[in-house]
């Protein structure tokens, strides 16, 4: 689920293969429309699908000339990003 509060977008619940498909297009549209702060504080579980989702949103934002900043990334997401060597691509605020 994506909650929008001005420039802030908050994701809640699991970001896994079972859940991200429903978020892809909505998120791309939102991050392309304005500079955004993506808050992951309420994310409960992640897998590699979460990385794919976030990378697609970063690409969409950059293609639209927008900035996407990710805050409160769960430690498991930060670890996955490092494992897949995309931690320098994703703007993960720690």
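^ structure tokens above, recovered residues below v
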């Amino acid at each position: 689920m994506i909650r929008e509060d001005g420039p802030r977008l908050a994701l809640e619940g699991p970001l896994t293969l079972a859940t991200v498909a429903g978020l892809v297009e909505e998120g791309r549209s939102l991050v392309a429309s304005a500079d955004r702060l993506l808050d992951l504080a309420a994310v409960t579980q992640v897998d590699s699908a979460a990385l794919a989702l976030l990378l697609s949103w970063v690409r969409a934002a950059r293609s639209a000339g927008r900035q996407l900043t990710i805050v409160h990334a769960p430690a498991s997401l930060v670890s996955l990003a490092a494992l897949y060597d995309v931690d320098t691509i994703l703007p993960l605020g720690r």
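The two ends are 22 Å apart (CA to CA).
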